[in-house]
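1st attempt posting a full record on here, be nice pls
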Amino acid sequence: MSFDENYFSTHTYADVSFAKYGQYWWSNRFYAILARRYGKRGTRLLEIGSGLGHLVGQLEDTFETYAADVNHWALMQSKPVASRTELNVGSAEAIPFADGTFGVVIIKHVVEHLRDPERAIAELGRVLAPGGILILATPNLDSLLKPLKGDGWIGYQDPTHIALKPPAEWLSLIDRAGMRVRRVFADGFWDVPYVPLVPAILQKLFFGSLGGLQAISGFVFLPMRWGESIMVIAEKQ
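the predicted structure (as tokens):
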């Protein structure tokens, strides 16, 4: 599958029609909180795999914002919501910027799609300035509830997920790229249902409550295995 207009209409991005307060909106808000908390105001920020621009657009009031995506169509759709962001066609495996350009780099659910994620992680380290912050998220092969889903686990459902790795491997790659991991946490259990017979809405309230609280409050507290994705905050040395 290519990352074309059809991809954006049939995956997570289909949720943009929610307007506000859907899962997609809350997710972007949470990442924006992290960027403002850990990044230095006024520095250059790059989102790699920026999609339709809803996250980077939220950060234009805090950072000098840049976006890169392999999909030219998606970048063009970004213009209304990221009007002050410099938009670039580019891959995580060959980031089109010089060494040490950015104070913050966000790469949200991109590395699992890449043929050469090792090279991409090295590129992230290359374009970060000393003291710069990386915010990365990817599916969590060590999720506590993943065994309950079996082959139906959310990380296996997208055929473009060709680079799923255990958290320890991602953390090792980040370390080798010259970045010190500051925080590792999870996003909660939102891939209901996990057990048979119990209504999904009840399971969402039970299993998803902690992840929802974390996303709404902006406070990071979920251990690494307590979610379908791992999230990493790292600092360039």
